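job 3f2a | input accepted
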Amino acid sequence: MAYDELKSQEPKKDYLMSDATANVPQEIETEDPNYKPAGKLTGKNTIVTGGDSGIGQATAIAFAKEGANVAIIYYENDEDAEKTKKRLEEIGVKTLVFKGDVGNEEFANDVVKQVADAWGQIDVHVNHAGEQHVQEKIQDVTAEQIDRTFRTNVFSMYYFVKAVFPHMSKGGSIINSASITAYRGNPLFLDYSATNGAIVSFTRSLSQHPEILDKKIRVNGVAPGPIMTPMIPATFDEEKLETWGKSGPLGRPGKAYELAGAYVYLASSDSSYVSGQMMHVNGGEFVTS
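job 3f2a | predicted structure (289 res):
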């Protein structure tokens, strides 16, 4: 195949099932009933890619509870997106919802333009959308899969940062979601692990960029460990799920809402002296930062 003939596969191709929350046998907990908001993001305008379910949904809800207006972006699960939108509106903040492929630069530009037109400046942007594909054999990792995994997980971050930057307020925050696989690797996720290594380097490099520094924008990331989200049963078979996430010091997978506080911290002025860092929320597993 000639280089210029390479085509990316569709997002989430070959998932064992749709990663809609309704299809997941395990409970996906995205809201902590004991969370006590403190107005840390009052009046802030925020964007969360992949904000319809799992960690993204938990982050969007926590942002709203802290007083932020939230725009969420999702790919295909309309029911999850509608439930998230309803919950954000119940909390009482402005909400925008966009459906599309984050790996498409034109889509990213259009979303950011609409958010900026509606709300003016953007204060916090969270790059969270991602996908992963289990492949036990090296030869089964196709060029199309590699392209798609990088397009969703890495290219999208470039696209949204480029689009958001002109509209971002002085002292704003960019938060990139990576994974523990960037640090310990995973033989079943060669391309996914590689994208997360790229995300870590992108986060550190962007945090040092002169244009970012001139606007005093902080750039950080979160590297979750095993967190139960709809993507997990959509990509692991039942046999792997029996032991998944139980080998760490705490002996269990994390709940989606247990990540939300990290994103609130990095979005708020609590982290005013923090930039270029990755927060590790992984159940106690030690990794270098």
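job 3f2a | The beta strands are 45-49, 69-74, 95-99, 122-127, 168-177, 218-224, 227-228, 254-255, 278-281.
job 3f2a | closed
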